[in-house]
Design brief:
The protein is α/β, with parallel strands linked by helices and 312 residues long. The chain has helices at 21-41, 88-100, 115-125, 148-165, 191-199, 205-221, 234-245, 257-264, 272-284; strands spanning 4-8, 45-50, 65-68, 71-73, 82-83, 106-108, 111-113, 133-138, 169-174, 287-297, 302-311. The strands form two sheets. Strands 6-3-8-2-9-1-11-10 form an eight-stranded mixed beta sheet, with helices on both faces. The longest helix has 21 residues, at 21-41. Bound molecules: 3-[2,3-bis(oxidanyl)phenyl]propanoic acid and fe (ii) ion. Catalyzes the non-heme iron(II)-dependent oxidative cleavage of 2,3-dihydroxyphenylpropionic acid and 2,3-dihydroxicinnamic acid into 2-hydroxy-6-ketononadienedioate and 2-hydroxy-6-ketononatrienedioate, respectively.
Amino acid sequence: MPVQLKCLSHTPLRGLNDPGAEVIAEVDAVLAKCRAEVEAYDPELIVVFAPDHYNGLFYDLMPPFVIATAAESVGDYQTKPGPLSVPGGLALELARHLLDSDLDIAISHRLQVDHGCTQTLQEMTGSLERYPVIPIIINSVAPPFGPYRRIRKLGQAVGSFIARLGKRVLILGTGGLSHEPPVPLLADAPQDVADFLIAGRNPTPEFRAARQARTIATGKIFGTPQCGLTPLNPEWDKAFMRLLIEGRLEQVDAFRIDEISKAAGRSTHEVRTWVAAFAALQAVGDYSAREDYYRPINEWIAGYGVVSAATV
Ligand SMILES: O=C(O)CCc1cccc(O)c1O
Ligand SMILES: [Fe+2]
């Protein structure tokens, strides 16, 4: 039973602060093709590795990894609100398998997920409930982060579980590539910002709108001298995609968190979801992979990439 994988950037600015029409058309076409491939594959299960952006997870209790037995979309930006179709019993079995594999994963029986999970799920399946899906959140936005070798181990353990299922499983990774949107840091934050980062769950609609307006405003100047955030880094992105496509996953063990933040932007660590996804696929079996698309898109604050793979 071949297992399939898709890893792609997400960006809530898609549709809110768009680049030119040709670029939109290119991305629409790539996503439509991926969506059709998923439809044809008809997965019996999706495992999605995703980050969170202070919508479901906060510093009052910030886990490195979480697996959800039930999840609900907060509906931030233009994503749909409401429940995901999480097979709770199977998710719990996977959690047990991970614990048995020496991985201390947190479990949520009621997880709130944001665009970091739902945008890609919607783009690849058309909805939040089309297929059974197990969300695994990897902390990629709220430092400190564990090393990349740990992410590879998590992925490998998820992959050994998937291999045993013998089902049509689609593995998704969502986020990256190089980018630095205006996400606040707890270190040196003023008290009101710190309060949000520590316990900002279920914000008022006004608070959420102000936050999203800030992201859109940054999108309008991102990549210009007016913007102090780390610019996109296409060279870093291309080297990273090549590493995954060529199956050189052990090389991520040498990744240095601070170096990546500096070279490619603080939110580049969302590629942790890609590392976990590819490590899971590789644990199922040898794979072949292809680059579907890459373009640095300042309007979206994203080194925007799409990669597909499947076991051979
Ligand atoms: O709202 C936020 O906290 C960040 C939004 C955001 C913007 C650009 C690229 C992303 O990957 C992303 O997540
Ligand atoms: Fe993100």
